[in-house]
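Appendix C: a fully annotated inverse folding record. The material below is reproduced so that readers can follow the format used throughout the book. The structure is listed first as tokens, followed by the designed sequence.
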């Protein structure tokens, strides 16, 4: 169910199409990454004596590729290591025996306009987008909400029973009364960093210990258990949020403050195109390297294999051993893979990080997530039911096993794709022991209860594809989600790129990636932390930014994340 809160602070009569997006500007680190990227002075430079210096980049997901791309443009030589494939959780796959244009997004599949640093790179490589069919979104033909065996068909919120409006209003009231929502969103829109920090400092101290569910229970607007239950099952924006109930309310506030759950776009042809195109892209403006240089050309077409060992050696160097047995030593390295890899897949010296950073890595909490897609012969769901005139099938939110079902249309009478189920946490764990075919059978049986007259199976034209991110050996989870009390841990990880205050023998290795960010689960966080790491490497090697375009480390002291006491 879509909340109306994200538009509440717009001036009356302001056309929706003309509204500037609320960017991922804060609240923890209110820095305008999109302005930094767009500035003609560029991101900074390193001394000419450092040109050609190798920098290890561990992980070829979006964060790693962005970091490598920008380091290359500065005249450094990134050496990318990737255990699986370029893209990380931007993973787009096809269906065996089907048209290659028919794809499924196993990871990130919807992107809000507020992800302005992400869109900088998406625009740079010329990606085409389309509206994503979230529940009750303007471009979604219809939505069915199925709870406790009762289905409700809707094209807009007004088509649903009154209780759903009551739930939406309760959520809006909770945000205003308990989280100063309008004040914060206005400060973010105006890029008023000091106001953002002032509001957020109060909320972090007040709410760091609080779960999402506890926040709802403390709100007078949510005194009804029935309302809380419906909210958990149907939610706002993209659907139900009960799987997030144990997480810190601060995680949820970051999402709603920045409009991250609104107005999503999908990438035509798949989101993995972004890191793949950046990998192949030949920048028009770069230092040291000849025109025509790309990440691909620097690597002979393919990244180095998985890293198996990281340790420090004399001169405060970082030495990397990879799966081929190759050993290389670097003055700087960027680690962008999921941080749990440092605890399991990679043999590490404790000297890589200070002890409290290791604690933060160990305490990182990952959410499980699963998806299953099937290819179908055409968008049959648009056929009108001869008795009711309604769509034969709709985007579906339910308390049944499938939870969320998305209908992905490629045009009339063209093959299409159904995401039969997208689930998180406990709902994802229920699918873990089942094969793709077994999952599909259970999902189709569940959907048959909602659409008894629809034979989905007869439209299926290929085998299903599925993922459970918690079972992926190089991920072990979908994305980070802080639990109550984890703010201090996240602060340590995010601020690691500013290393002047670290002991000298703990510098030179920089953390980046989605789970290092404050907005994990969104590609924007991967991009922002990559840019932080680029600044860190540049600074570590004696470089600097142009005075007219200070980088995230240059302004750190004025906008550093709120620091809570340790005692």
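Designed amino acids, in order:
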């Amino acid at each position: 169910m879509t909340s109306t809160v994200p538009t509440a602070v717009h001036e009356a009569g302001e056309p929706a199409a003309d509204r500037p997006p609320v960017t991922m500007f804060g609240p923890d680190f209110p820095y305008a990454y999109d302005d930094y990227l767009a500035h003609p002075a560029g991101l900074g430079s390193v001394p000419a004596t450092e040109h050609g210096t190798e920098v290890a980049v561990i992980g070829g997901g979006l964060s790693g590729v962005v970091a490598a791309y920008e380091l290359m443009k500065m005249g450094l030589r990134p050496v990318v290591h990737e255990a699986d494939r370029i893209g990380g959780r931007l993973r787009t796959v096809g269906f065996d025996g089907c048209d290659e244009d028919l794809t499924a997004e196993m990871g990130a599949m919807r992107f809000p306009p507020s992800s302005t640093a992400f869109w900088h790179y998406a625009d740079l490589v010329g990606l085409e987008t389309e509206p994503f069919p979230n529940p009750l979104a303007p471009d979604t033909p219809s939505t069915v909400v199925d709870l406790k065996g009762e289905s409700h068909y809707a094209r807009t919120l007004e088509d649903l029973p009154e209780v759903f409006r009551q739930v939406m209003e309760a959520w809006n009231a909770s945000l205003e009364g308990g989280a100063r929502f309008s004040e914060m969103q206005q400060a973010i829109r105006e890029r008023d960093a000091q106001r953002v920090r002032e509001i957020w400092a109060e909320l972090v101290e007040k709410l760091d210990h609080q779960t999402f569910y506890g926040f709802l229970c403390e709100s007078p607007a949510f005194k009804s258990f029935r309302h809380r239950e419906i909210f958990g099952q149907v939610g706002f924006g993209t659907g139900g949020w009960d799987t997030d109930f144990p997480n810190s309310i601060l995680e949820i506030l970051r999402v709603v403050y920045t409009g991250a759950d609104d107005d999503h776009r999908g990438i035509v042809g798949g989101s993995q195109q972004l890191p793949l195109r950046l990998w192949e892209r030949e920048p028009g403006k770069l230092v040291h390297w000849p025109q025509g240089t790309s990440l691909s050309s620097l690597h002979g077409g393919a990244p180095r294999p998985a890293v198996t060992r990281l340790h420090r050696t004399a001169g405060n160097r970082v030495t990397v051993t990879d799966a081929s047995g190759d050993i290389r030593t670097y003055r700087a390295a960027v680690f962008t893979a999921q941080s749990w890899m440092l605890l399991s897949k990679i043999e590490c010296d404790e000297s890589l990080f200070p002890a409290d950073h290791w604690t933060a890595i160990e305490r990182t909490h990952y959410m499980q997530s699963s998806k299953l897609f099937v290819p179908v012969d055409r968008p049959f769901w648009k056929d009108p039911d001869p008795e009711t005139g309604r769509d034969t099938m709709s985007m579906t939110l339910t308390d049944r096993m499938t939870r969320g079902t998305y209908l992905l249309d490629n045009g009339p009478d063209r093959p299409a794709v159904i995401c039969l189920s997208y689930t998180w946490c406990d709902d994802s764990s229920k699918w873990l022991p089942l094969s793709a075919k077994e999952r599909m059978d259970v999902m189709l049986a569940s959907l048959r209860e909602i659409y008894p007259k629809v034979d989905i199976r007869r439209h299926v034209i290929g085998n299903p594809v599925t993922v459970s991110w918690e079972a992926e050996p190089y991920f072990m989870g979908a994305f980070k989600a802080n639990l109550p009390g984890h703010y201090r841990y996240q602060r340590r990880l995010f601020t690691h790129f500013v290393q002047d205050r670290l002991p000298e023998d703990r510098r030179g290795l920089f953390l980046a990636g989605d789970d290092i960010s404050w907005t994990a689960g969104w590609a924007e966080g991967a991009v922002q932390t990559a840019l932080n790491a680029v600044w860190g490497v540049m600074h570590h090697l004696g470089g600097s930014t142009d005075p007219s375009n200070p980088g995230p480390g240059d302004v750190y002291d004025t906008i550093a994340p709120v620091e809570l006491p340790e005692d």
